[in-house]
Amino acid sequence: HSPRVAPAGSSVKKRRKEKKRALSDDDVADIQHTEDFLIKPESRVPQLDTSQWPLLLKNFDKLNVRTTHYTPLPSGSNPLKREISDYVRSGFINLDKPSNPSSHEVVAWIRRILRVEKTGHSGTLDPKVTGCLIVCIERATRLVKSQQSAGKEYVGIVRLHNAIESEAQLARAIETLTGALFQRPPLIAAVKRQLRVRTIYESKLVEYDPERRLGIFWVSCEAGTYIRTLCVHLGLLLGVGGQMQELRRVRSGILGEMDNMVTLHDVLDAQWQYDNHKDDSYLRRVILPLEKLLTSHKRLVMKDSAVNAICYGAKIMLPGVLRYEDGIELNQEIVVITTKGEAICLAIALMTTAVISTCDHGIVAKIKRVIMERDTYPRKWGLGPKASQKKMMIQKGLLDKHGKPNENTPESWRREYVDYRDASRKEAAAGHQAAPEVDRAAKVSIASALMLLLYTSVSPMICTHLAPDFWSSDDF
């Protein structure tokens, strides 16, 4: 029998199917750690699906494109491919805090193990409480404040002092304690015991053991909520009394138990392996780049030439924007990133997505917190024609050393050149002078309104008699 020969078309189809076959998670992880990821100044479709690009570059092709023209600079690097020293200094650990040591002790131990100068955490856990504690290292400590104010989730055990009628009664009581609640910190708390309002977003009963009067519950709440106080309130609501027996934090901000949570032993072993075998693979698994904490923020991609100016505090101007995300609202917190996916800063949006798409100039956002170190990218400002001319005039003595006009300055320069810094200072000074006048006028108007209200409330007759003289007085 002659062997069957497959038609040429079938082999082509087979190859196409193999290309379309989805990559495994391990393959994607290897690609993310080995390949260079960069938003290039071109419109070609990238080979790896952008939904599998790492961290802040995920789905970058779905961002609105303002322009694709820019000059890539060789500075900076993909967050996953930083040098190990930079990687550690720009990372955080999603730590499974053990019971008994305080959060402060745990953070101090990590600082000693990794031999770094600065560490911080995402919100204190009581010594007996276990679970998710985000420990930020060096540069990532700039994100600590935003992580401390993020929402939290807990699983706890409440012990009731007396028996209750049914499990449904406890479930109803737990669901009743949602929304804005008054709380006073417990006696053992290390803060001032003032009455405060905290929001419980959602809560539910997981399990109840009527014999031991123990209930397991899950709660999603605002930062700063005392679960111990919540358990006391639960006992009061049921009329039997109650107290917290055990507690575990299962989520802090966007990171939960399943998001690469590690133990203190992992941190110790990873550092030992690097010190003794120069193998940083374990350390890179234990420590995550700070960009992972910002994946829920709306993104703004900047040109490489604008990065260092922002690190020095420059305004985020529209001409420097390459891409921007849908749904940016006024005064919303956004993250400004480079074309390699590095976080430059957190910013407050001053333009919505619709305004960005229709404008050519203006301030897009104001900086809230700079994350990137200065001079990671080269300085690219002060290289324009006016700046170059100004430097030359300073060298020739036509301007003083600060670039201000002196007796040798040509009249044409005085007439044509506008120093915006001087203009802003004059405006500020004018505003300060006008402020007392505005305050005085406001005080007079308030006093007048109060006097009129007093006259009308005392007696309509008095008001009728006094109104003509009152309105003709100098105060009005």
TrEMBL record:
Keywords: Isomerase
Keyword Transport included in the entry's annotation: no
Superkingdom, natural source: Eukaryota
Chain segments annotated as coiled-coil in the UniProt record: none
Sequence ranges assigned to domain Dyskerin-like in this UniProt record: 49-107
Catalytic reaction annotation: uridine in 5S rRNA = pseudouridine in 5S rRNA
Main location: nucleus
Residue numbers spanned by region Disordered: 1-26
InterPro entries (alphabetical): Dyskerin-like, PsdUridine_synth_cat_dom_sf, PsdUridine_synth_N, PUA, PUA-like_sf, PUA_sf, tRNA_PsdUridine_synth_B_fam, TruB_C
Compartments where found: Nucleus, Cajal body
Short name of any one Pfam family annotated for the protein: DKCLD
Similarity section: Belongs to the pseudouridine synthase TruB family.
Protein name (database record): H/ACA ribonucleoprotein complex subunit DKC1
